[in-house]
Specification:
heterodimer, A: 112 residues, mainly beta, 7-stranded mixed beta sheet, 4-stranded antiparallel beta sheet, globular, B: 118 residues, 0% helix
Chain lengths: 112, 118
């Protein structure tokens, strides 16, 4: 299984400041045949299902604000919220879909 | 826009079988992949398995012997059965849709809490 490890477990950021979440996979999630990283990011607010933010490590899902961006390749990835808004308070998860079983990071709680 | 809705008992006794159904509306079961994902209270996400609309399945090895996922195209539904449950299976269970064979989750159900208790 590919183990996904996020850091930090939680962080507090002031409104308008940058938030950075890291995700490391135990094996590469990059397929050399198509040069794509099989890595997604989700946002989960209390009592709601997760919401897809980013796929292919850096492609923003339709309707997701451009303050959310994803970067990285191979085994190391980052989700950046460029200017934190009050509605961004949530838990964020990374997920690899390079191979089954599909696996998620443990989550990072973002607070103000 | 596709909508997914989980349904089934909210309470299951230990050693019994948990059964849930996901009803898909606003779209067809084909030609997508469909998963069950669970989240114990206050914890992270665990993928249980997926089914392709044709019936091909792939299960998490950690649960493989206990999990069965099936599809009913005529009803636009797919289902989960988890046998021999224990308290550790208490969780919110989500049904989810993937786009083709790119297994990120594009759509989620609202989730249903299943508690295992006598």
């Amino acid at each position: 299984d590919i183990v996904m490890t996020q850091s930090p477990d939680s962080l507090a950021v002031s409104l308008g400041e940058r938030a950075t979440i890291n995700c490391k996979s135990s094996q590469t999630v990059l397929y050399s045949s198509n040069n794509k990283n099989y890595l997604a990011w989700y946002q989960q607010k209390p009592a709601q299902p997760p919401k897809l933010l980013i796929y292919w490590a850096s492609t923003r899902q339709y309707g997701v604000p451009d303050r959310f961006s994803g970067s990285g390749s191979g085994t190391d990835f980052t989700l950046t919220i460029s200017s934190l808004q009050a509605e961004d308070v949530a838990v964020y998860y990374c997920q690899q879909y390079h191979s089954t079983p599909l696996t998620f990071g443990q989550g990072t709680k973002v607070e103000i | 826009q596709v909508q997914l809705q989980e349904s089934g008992p909210g309470l299951v006794k230990p050693s019994e079988t948990l059964s849930l159904t996901c009803t898909v509306s606003g779209g067809s079961i084909s030609p997508y992949y469909w998963s069950w994902i669970r989240q114990p209270p206050g914890k992270g996400l665990e993928w249980l398995g997926y089914i392709y609309y044709s019936g091909t399945t792939n299960y998490n090895p950690s649960l493989k012997s206990r999990v069965t996922i099936s599809v009913n195209m005529s009803k636009n539904q797919f289902s989960l059965k988890l046998s021999s449950v224990t308290a550790a299976d208490t969780a919110v269970y989500y049904c989810a849709r993937h786009i083709s064979s790119s297994w990120y989750v594009e759509s989620w159900g609202q989730g249903t809490l299943v508690t295992v208790s006598s």
